[in-house]
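Lay summary. Proteins are chains of building blocks that fold into shapes, and those shapes determine what they do. In this project we predict the shape from the chain. Here is one chain we studied, written as its sequence of building blocks.
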Amino acid sequence: MFTGLVECCLPIAAVQDEGPGRKITLETPGWGKEVEMGASIAINGCCLTVIAIEGDQLSFEAGPETLSRTNLGKLKPGDRVNLERSLKVGDPLGGHWVTGHVDALGSLLERLEDGQWATLWFSLPSYLNKQLASKGSIAIDGVSLTLVDVEPERFSVALIPHTLEVTTLGKLALGDEVNLETDLMAKYVEKQMTAARII
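And here is the predicted shape, written in a compact code that computers can read:
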């Protein structure tokens, strides 16, 4: 479990295709020293397991399902990713409950700059629309954000200068794909209401 509060933004050192999956190695000077083998790390909001530690490098494996649902399959050496270690019991919850299980890919449709601030519009699959509500929460590439406006196949978020500076969201260009995870509680509410044939 994660909070969507990104700890750092670090570069990909190497990617290697392995059968149907892919091995991803990150350059993590300093930050990775406290990480242990088998630890869960959110990479762009996708929960992966540490499978190797070599000096300042951490390696992970992503399977076919992960590669088909996320933007991790498009990563290349030098690309930067958002990182967050999993929560420990008693850690503060500053964002919202983020599982690291990406629901779908969205893409940046529009970027409205206002000085150092920005409003970003993203596409989303229509089937996820019922899980979004204005002023609710969403994780975009692992960043916990508050929804501003929600429309049938798109939504907007307003980003403060700090978020634009310390996460990958500040460098997004039109058309770039992002990992989307809707609010955990919204999923369960929709499931129960669907089962009861309320929606």
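What the prediction tells us: The radius of gyration is 17 Å.
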